[in-house]
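Ticket opened by: R.M.
Priority: normal
Category: complex prediction / small molecule

The reporter submitted a protein together with flavin-adenine dinucleotide and asked that the result be attached to this ticket for the collaborator who will pick it up next week. Submitted input follows.
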Amino acid sequence: MEYFLSEEQKIIKSLAKRISDEYVSKVAIKYDKEGIFPRDILDLLAYTELTGVYIPKEYGGFGGGVMEMCLVVEELSRNCAGVAVSYAATALGAYPIILYGKEEQKKKYLPKIAKGELIAAFALTEADAGSDVSSIKTTAEKKGDYYILNGSKHWITNGGEADVYVVFAVTDKSKGPRGISAFIVEKGYEGFYCGKKEDKMGIRSSSTTELIFEDCKVPKENLLGREGTGFIIAMKTFDRTRPGVAAMAVGIAQGAYEHAIRYAKERVQFGQPLSSFQAIQHMLADMYINIEAARSLLYSTCRMIDSGAKDFSKESSACKVFASDVAMKVTTDAVQIMGGNGYVKDYPVEKMMRDAKVTQIFEGANQIQRNIIASEIIKEY
Ligand SMILES: Cc1cc2nc3c(=O)[nH]c(=O)nc-3n(C[C@H](O)[C@H](O)[C@H](O)COP(=O)(O)OP(=O)(O)OC[C@H]3O[C@@H](n4cnc5c(N)ncnc54)[C@H](O)[C@@H]3O)c2cc1C
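Result attached by the on-call engineer:
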């Protein structure tokens, strides 16, 4: 399919593809098995300046948008979604600063994130506040020149590895979602610790941990936006980063599809390659149709967001839901096409099937995305 990417976007995509094929593919299975954080790949992405593709030029980035970020995520995910999510989680941590940071905050953090000198993370979810994010309990109390944070966060991607965390906490309990605020918390701040590391089904090279705040002192100038705007900051950030999950899903699906085709052409049963059986051909055809449909919706959504459109929650949720459901279906079918070999760790498709699952869960589970889409379309008509 021709997607009419700009010359720069084609260069970004092909550079990310090269890194993915030449480096990520070599370490994907080992890093997955041993749970190794892909710092070497992130360093390579920094060296090639892909860490800055979505950061505005005035803060040292390439000046691209969600599309450029998604192109990198998609290509990395073709070989390892764990590597891709470690890259994408920095974008999730950087976007609140891009969107709501004060000039001093942008100047302090964004150039270093663009250069890959800082890894970022986004900390909203808690043990008892997953889909219902407005029920978070971590508190931030203003005392003199500091906010004092107390509480804990759950499931934080890049936890323990990141240098900068955008953390959401309650500054005024009586105001519900309007009493939530966002803060930039640096690794090493007094009273800020990293807790348990999760032993996950997939994306195992990425780090997912608890974060603990015990009278953690955060300078008052690290408040993002105004007090009480945290919920809006989180939602507006997700509108821009859910396409990143869709890109991960498209990349995983594309990777599994490529493996399945190659395998189907090589593996002979009943004296013929598997690819000559119509049942297999139809599965491959459906994979192709679904992947192209998911990619088309993803790229259209990215173009809409980057055009400066005001409201795109529905489109952003739709591409996340569609692409993640496609990734689950395509990877499951890829395992089926490869039979027993699909089910063992000697080939990468069983990893891809495990990795695909999380795209239906994180950054708002698909049920929640369908709730968002339904509420928007019911308002429209
Ligand atoms: C690997 C991984 C990495 C993550 N990284 C981050 C991160 O970096 N930062 C961060 O803040 N969070 C992160 N998360 C958290 C993630 O966003 C949540 O797991 C997700 O939003 C779902 O919340 P939950 O797990 O508590 O599920 P729950 O909210 O308990 O939901 C369980 C199930 O019930 C369904 N459900 C819940 N409410 C409704 C409803 N109203 N209608 C219909 N169905 C409903 C859900 O869709 C889901 O299927 C991560 C999670 C994982 C697994």
